[in-house]
């Protein structure tokens, strides 16, 4: 059917976004451009989500992101704060955005979840700003000790959790703990040793014995046998002996402190004494 003259004279109605932009030209100056564009997209997006069926929501969202990109809402910069140990390429991959990507396509919540899966990241916050900047703030774990077990080494954090087994020498001098269960039990012992610097500075390693108690291996080769569950009292006594007798500087094979009322000094070449606190049946009693 041919169109009438009246129909031919009726111009096509502009799209809702175009009408909104015409009515708000004053907002589209450099200072308010991003706000105006986002507001326009918000109006359009609300209509799409209210009217479109569920199966078309994803397509509508893609359309909004693309429209935002045409209006200048793209990723311009990714700023990362608090990063020290996490490799930058791992951060970029977890963020999942590049310069020029549609800003509205980027999900801060998804990026945060991926960042918190990285070994060194304890927590993360991610912000998306209208000027195109994505701000990532990381709280990283702190290297606390090196754990040696079954011939392998790993870095522990301040909660005794394994962070990484790579680049062990890259994190500066750290206390060395050795043996099964040493990772879980090391934190309180190291904290106590740090209050006794005269002992800490002479300690080469802390060795977990039968997952029950500790030996201190000194740099001069002496083993200090600590009592189970009474480490603080034994360290206090050991500090007094060092101050009064320089006990830790003597050429001894062992200083046995497992009995509260007895101190046994074993000279080099003497056989080790039997553990004063034998392990339950079926468990090793080496100590």
Automatic annotation (TrEMBL):
Keyword field: Cell cycle, Cell division, Cell inner membrane, Cell membrane, Membrane, Transmembrane, Transmembrane helix
Cellular component, GO annotation: cell division site; plasma membrane
A GO biological-process term: FtsZ-dependent cytokinesis
Highest taxon, organism lineage: Bacteria
Pfam families attached to this UniProt entry: FtsQ_DivIB_C, POTRA_1
Location(s), subcellular: Cell inner membrane; Membrane
Region (Disordered) location: 265-287
Segments forming domain POTRA: 73-141
Bilayer topology term: Single-pass type II membrane protein
Segments passing through the bilayer: 31-52
Function noted in UniProt: Essential cell division protein.
Family assignment from sequence similarity: Belongs to the FtsQ/DivIB family. FtsQ subfamily.
Name under which the protein is recorded: Cell division protein FtsQ
């Amino acid at each position: 059917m041919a169109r009438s003259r009246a129909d031919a004279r009726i111009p096509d109605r502009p799209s809702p976004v175009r009408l909104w932009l015409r009515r708000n030209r004053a907002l589209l100056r450099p200072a308010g451009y991003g706000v105006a564009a986002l507001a326009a997209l918000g109006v359009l997006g609300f209509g799409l989500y209210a009217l479109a069926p569920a199966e078309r929501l994803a397509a509508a969202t893609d359309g909004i992101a693309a429209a935002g990109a045409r209006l200048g809402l793209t990723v311009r910069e990714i700023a990362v704060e608090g990063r020290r140990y996490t490799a930058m390429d791992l951060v970029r991959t977890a963020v999942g955005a590049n310069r020029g990507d549609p800003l509205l396509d980027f999900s801060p919540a998804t990026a945060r979840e991926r960042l918190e899966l990285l070994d060194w990241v304890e927590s993360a916050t991610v912000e998306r700003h209208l000027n195109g900047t994505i701000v990532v703030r990381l709280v990283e774990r702190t290297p606390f000790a090196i754990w040696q077990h079954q011939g392998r080494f790993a870095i522990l954090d301040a909660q005794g959790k394994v962070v990484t087994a790579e680049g062990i020498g890259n994190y500066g001098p750290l206390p060395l703990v050795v043996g099964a269960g040493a990772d879980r039990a090391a934190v309180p012992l190291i904290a106590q040793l740090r209050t006794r610097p005269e002992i800490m500075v002479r300690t080469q390693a802390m060795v977990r014995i039968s997952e029950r108690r500790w030996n201190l291996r000194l740099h001069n080769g002496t083993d200090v046998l600590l009592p189970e569950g009474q480490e603080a009292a034994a360290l206090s006594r050991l500090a007094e002996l060092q101050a009064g007798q320089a006990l830790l500087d003597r050429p001894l094979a062992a200083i046995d402190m497992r009995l509260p009322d007895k101190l046994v000094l074993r000279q080099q070449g003497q056989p080790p004494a039997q553990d004063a606190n034998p392990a339950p049946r079926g468990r090793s009693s080496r100590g």
